[in-house]
Specification:
two-stranded parallel sheet; globular; 2 domains; two-stranded antiparallel ribbon
Length: about 450
């Protein structure tokens, strides 16, 4: 059996299995379920691409698929670096151990490029089958240096505005990279959307835009029920949300996919023109990346990845998934901690599923742990913040809804000694959700 056949099988079996694990909340799969869902979806989509087009990345270009996966994490970390300035989203219930955190985040972010490009390939296959000339034709035009210069200038201005005034121009983060890198690729005679549009071929543009909507919808749909997830704190648009995403935020996914395409094409300039869009024979005919370019590229990646990863783990990871037996062992004693381990309910969502206290845990401790666990799971609050609220008697949806964001933030910071955590925007997320539930009559966590 070829490797691609095995991966196709994993994908086709993994999509329904991952959804079942998500709904059943079964560990050790539930917390990192995002990665299982997306890798299964990517492998299954590649199989459908092969059925539609007679070729696919896993079947014909496995090396390019692997390289896309390797480049995916540093490409996404470019946007995480920008988010350290924007603070438009943050992560909750991330695995506690640093090494596990790094592996999980890298493994999850590695799905971004393969995911969007596999869907784009599928859309291209549909276009080839449904259109008379196997492509979407447009009017050709001539590209001048003025066109290239204007696009790069606009992209650079968008980046400057985003970083200088993030509260006003945060939305410009989704598009600047395309306007910078795509014309550079055209000018260097690499693959580019500008070149395709100029030649009268709009196929790839349409495929990438559709992929943005499809992948964006799946990202947010699967994020709703996930435990380790991201939550948005976007200025002006937080009142109307679909899942965790402000409704208008979905418009950012298509230009984001265009950015991914332009960045990858820019990288491929240094690979002698090799690309995931070319078949293996065409790629072998090209020189590939020179050793000097490879060394420089990975030095640049290292300079981006390391500080961004540290910034993420310290600023945009809001809560971690702490085992209850380790966190509360000093307070409840070794016997009760052992009882938690033996019950198989080491994490807060597992403890909430218990119907009776495990032998060795007093009724008082059991009730307290239930209340803390319910708080910790509420919008990914986490055990640390849940403990502060529990100590102040804020143990119900109604009590959270009655809080003032600024005052509650100040109280938590004084109790924990953390001068900049949590942010008021994140505390506001808890309060807004609590008030929404109260309005709907949902008074239980």
């Amino acid at each position: 059996m070829r490797v691609c056949h095995f991966l196709w099988f994993l994908g086709l079996a993994g999509v329904p299995a991952s959804h079942w694990l998500l709904l059943a909340k079964i560990e050790p799969f539930y917390t990192p379920i995002y990665a299982f869902l997306w890798w299964s979806f990517i492998f299954a989509t590649d199989f459908v691409v092969y059925l539609v087009r007679g070729r696919s990345m896993l079947h014909d270009r496995p090396r390019e698929f692997l390289l896309l996966s390797l480049w995916s994490t540093p490409v996404w970390l470019l946007f995480e670096a920008i988010n350290l300035r924007l603070m438009n989203w943050y992560y909750v219930q991330v695995p506690a151990q640093f090494g596990v955190q790094a592996f999980f985040l890298a493994f999850s972010f590695a799905t971004v490029l393969p995911g969007v490009f596999e869907v784009a390939e599928l859309v291209v296959g549909a276009i080839e089958r449904l259109t008379p000339n196997r492509r979407i034709e447009g009017r050709p035009f001539r590209v001048t240096r003025w066109h290239i210069g204007v696009q790069i200038a606009v992209g650079a201005a968008m980046l400057v505005l985003t970083l200088a005034w993030p509260e006003r121009f945060f939305c410009l983060a989704w598009g600047f990279a395309f306007l910078i890198f795509d014309p550079i690729c055209y000018a260097r005679r690499g693959r580019s959307l500008l070149g395709q549009l100029a030649s009268g071929d709009n196929t790839r543009l349409v495929a990438l835009l559709v992929s943005g909507f499809v992948c964006g919808g799946l990202w947010e749909a699967w994020n709703i029920g996930a435990r380790t997830k991201w939550i948005y704190t976007v200025p002006f648009f937080d009142q109307i949300k679909l899942g965790e995403m402000p409704a208008l935020g979905f418009l950012g996914f298509p230009p984001f996919v265009l950015e991914c395409y332009a960045i990858v094409n820019f990288i491929n300039l240094f690979r002698g023109g090799r690309s995931w869009e070319l078949d293996s024979g065409e790629n072998r005919a090209r020189a590939g990346m020179k050793p000097f370019h490879a060394i420089v590229a990975w030095l640049v990646v290292g300079c981006l990845v390391l500080p961004t990863a540290v910034g993420m783990l310290t600023r945009t990871v809001s809560s971690i998934s702490l085992p209850l037996d380790k966190y509360f062992a000093p307070g409840i004693g070794p016997r009760a901690a052992r009882a938690i381990r033996e019950s198989g309910a080491r994490h807060t969502h597992e403890f909430l599923a218990l119907e009776a206290p495990p032998e060795g845990i007093s009724p008082q401790d059991y009730r307290a742990l239930k209340e803390i666990s319910a708080l910790a799971e509420f919008k990914g609050m986490g055990v640390d913040y849940a403990m502060v609220l529990w100590e102040r008697g804020i143990v119900s949806v109604e009590r959270i809804a009655a809080q003032d964001p600024e005052q509650l933030t100040t109280m938590i910071r004084r109790r924990t000694g953390w001068t900049d955590s949590p942010t008021e925007e994140r505390v506001k997320v808890w309060i807004v959700e609590a008030r929404r539930q109260v309005r709907r009559g949902q008074t239980d966590f």
